[in-house]
Structures
1.
Amino acid sequence: MVQLTMTPPTADEFAALYASTGWGERTAQELAPALAGSWVVCCARDDAGALVGMGRLISDGVLHAFVTELIVATEARGGGAGALILAALVEESRRRGVADVQLFAARGRTAFYERNGFTPRPADAPGMDLA
């Protein structure tokens, strides 16, 4: 069973989770400003208090909110932590008055987001990345 909190992790915890899940090698010094610039951060912690998942929202606070870095530790996947984090982020965004919540799904994770209420953008209005 995981416990959710809206208290951001430490930058060291964020960096360790990032690295352990294959998201890349980022230092705590790199990730600290990302945490500080987040609008909302939701963490999932195990019974011992260890960080097992997290997600962030970035937003203008009025029109749009974007889910970024929804990360769940490999050993905690499949237990519902990701869905709980995502639901908490969406609920908090709506509570703050921003109903338009968007995201870019990581490769291979589209089905997870669809199960949790997100729909792909139409083919004539896809999300894009700068190459």
Note: The radius of gyration is 14 Å.
2.
Amino acid sequence: MLIQAHLGFAQLHRLELSKADYDLLSAMMEVQRPGGEVNASQAELRARVGLSKNRTSIAMSHLVERNVVLRPKGRYRSYFIHPYFAGYASQEEMEEALREATEAIKAGALVAPAPPAPQRHLAAVPTRRSA
């Protein structure tokens, strides 16, 4: 069983995740390796939680947009759960990973989890009027 950082989970509500987003994240947490690496396809994850292909794709997009899940470039079927939410083999490993993640975020080498950007309503956009 992996150790999870409670601080990260306490902040999940701020990220405006849907039930499907939470379900997909839960499936990823079940199959993660220590440190948050997930080697599973969306089809495999989808089968664990019973989501449709489209809903799984949307949920994964939400998790990636909010930096809860990180996608390494050029790696198929490979994801990383952000260090703030990943599971670790020991308390010491978790503390070191969280310390390194915090330093990397401050240095700009890692993105912090964040809620989606506010949506602008089209009514707020001025229209062009012809004379």
Note: The first helix runs from residue 6 to 10.
3.
Amino acid sequence: MRVQGRELPAGTGKQLLDSLSAVENSKAREGGIADLAGIVSATMPLASVVVLVCGSRVPSDDLRLACSRLPFGAKVLAVVADTSAKAPALRRIGDADVVTVGALEQIPLALQKVLA
């Protein structure tokens, strides 16, 4: 598990949840989502599945660039958190599935859209 600036301990489910509870918004000086994607590609070149999570202020062009920097052949899912979204929405950016969700309760329906 990787977030901006560091890797999160994720050896067990409990450890992953504990690590995620400390995650905060990244700051501009720490780089954007495209920078994070480049780090993921450099440190995990054999990743077969990558999930990017970002907020609604990330421009589509930045998300497109991030997806292009990920390891070749990886299945990419981008989750965009947007509190104004009334229902989950699915779109494609390159080979990546991009779901927008407005609330945690929308995630199961969003994932159903991706898997359909």
Note: The chain has a mean pLDDT of 86.
4.
Amino acid sequence: MNQITQSTMPLRVKALVCLYILLTLIALWRMTTFYAFDLLTLGVLPLLFGILTRAAWTKVVLFVYLGLQTIGLAAMSTTAIIAYQITPEDVNLVFQGYNIPLIPLWLILVSLIGFQWWVGVSKVMTQYLSPKNR
């Protein structure tokens, strides 16, 4: 294969980069609006940089970031289920006056985390980040 074909970013990785750009914009908005600094929102910055520069440490950071997301979602889901068993009328999520339904939100979050894991463990990502393809 020629150098141009090897250096192009696969479609899965492009979709992941687009997701991380969106998450970066949300993190910056959240940081400037609410003055909130945390690992789940700002952790996407080094990951995005690593994917774009094809750094050797990117795969490790990706797995750490996905592990944190997975643990966070599991913890919040468990807390919501326990709280719903105690007082169902108090379990609701309101953001800027809008009541957000929990089941569709949970399905979206599980889909997003599942997509990231799918791309992260794929052979395509490993080949894209391998030193011989740079």
Note: The chain is about 75% helix and 5% strand.
